[in-house]
Design a protein that fits this description.
The protein contains three helices and no strands. It is mainly α. It folds into two domains: 1-25; 36-73. It is flat. The chain starts with a helix and ends with a helix.
């Protein structure tokens, strides 16, 4: 149990240090914004989110229909 706790603590420390060093590089965001690529990235993200919400909506409609039919079918 103690070894697991030490491993988790070391892993979290490693992740936090990597995130902290990743925050320093903001030049890439400015480069993407100046080239117009940020709009492509945002379009892809929005498209994926719309697809996920549409999928969830259709699944919800199917489940509601199955619940209304009942277990007699």
């Amino acid at each position: 149990m103690i070894k697991l706790r030490i491993f988790i603590t070391a892993f979290l420390a490693l992740v936090v240090s990597m995130v902290a060093t990743a925050q320093d590089n903001t030049a890439d965001i400015g480069l993407m914004r100046s080239n117009g690529k940020i709009f492509v990235v945002m379009a892809v993200v929005v498209t994926i989110l719309i697809g996920l919400f549409a999928y969830l909506f259709t699944i919800d409609k199917k489940i509601t229909r199955l619940e209304k039919e009942g277990p007699n079918q």
